[in-house]
Amino acid sequence: MTDAPPTEHFEHAEHAEHAAHSENPFLPIVALTIAILAVIAASIGSLETIETQATIDSKNDAVLLQNQATDTWNLYEAKSIKKNMYEIAAAGGGVNAADFKTQAARNGDDEKKYDKQARELEAERDAKLEQSERHEHRHGVLTIAVTLLQISIAIATISIVRRGARWPWYAALALGLAGIFGAVSAYI
Fold first, then answer.
1. Least confident among 10-14, 38-42, 103-107
2. Integer CA distances (angstroms), 128 to 19, 44, 121, 139, in order
3. Distance in angstroms (rounded) separating the CA atoms of residues 163 and 154
4. Closest CA to 177 of 44, 37, 80, 11
C-alpha cells in the first residue's frame, strides 16, 4: 500500500487555503479539485487495503485446506494399507478368512471415502488460491491508481503555487482520471 507522509495533506490544505483567499477565480477551482482528488485517493487506498487483507485471508484459507487435505490423504493411506493387509490375510485362508475379507471391504470403503474428501479439499484449496490471485492483482492495480491520484494532487498544487497556471491543473485532471479509470478496471 502506498502511504503518504502523515503531514502531506496539511501542505496541500495550506496551498488550497491560500488559493481560496486569492483574487484569482481559477484558484478556488483548483483547490476544490485537490480536495476531490484527495477524497478519491483515500477511498481507493481503502479498497487497496481491503484487497491486501483479502489476499492474505484467501492464502491462509488455502493453507488450512491443504493441511486438511494432507491429513485426509494420510487417512486414505492408512485405510489402503489396512485393506491390503486384510486382503493378504484373507488370501492365506484359515478360520478368520471371512472376517479378514469383511475388514478389507470396510477399509476399502473408507479408502474411497477419504480419497473423495481429499480431492474435494484440494479443489477448494485451488479455488482459494485463484481467489487470492484475483485479490493480489486488484491490489496491484489499485496501488498504481492511488499513486496516479497522489501525483495528480501534487501537480494540481503546482497550479496554485504558480498563481493559476492552467497546464498543471489539466495534467492533474488527466492523471486523476487515469487513476480513477485504473481503479475501476481492477473490478471489471
1. 10-14
2. 50, 24, 11, 16
3. 15
4. 37
CB distance 8 to 146 below 8 Å: no
Angle, CA of 112, 117 and 120, to the nearest 5°: 125
Question: Is the distance from CB of 47 to CB of 142 less than 8 angstroms?
Answer: yes
* 90-119 pLDDT tens trace: 999 889 999 999 999 999 999 999 999 999
The CA-atom distances, in angstroms, between 142 and each of 55, 57, 120 are 13, 18, 33
Q: Which residues contact 27 (CB under 8 A, 6 or more apart)?
A: 19, 20, 159, 160, 163, 164
CA distance 49 to 166: 34
How far is C-alpha 115 from the chain's CA centre? 31
Q: How far apart are CA 170 and CA 101, in angstroms?
A: 83
Grid cell in block for residue 177? 482520471
Evaluate if pTM is beyond 0.85. Answer: no
How far apart (Å, rounded) are the C-alpha atoms in residues 158 and 147?
A: 17
What percent of the chain has a predicted confidence (pLDDT) above 70? 88
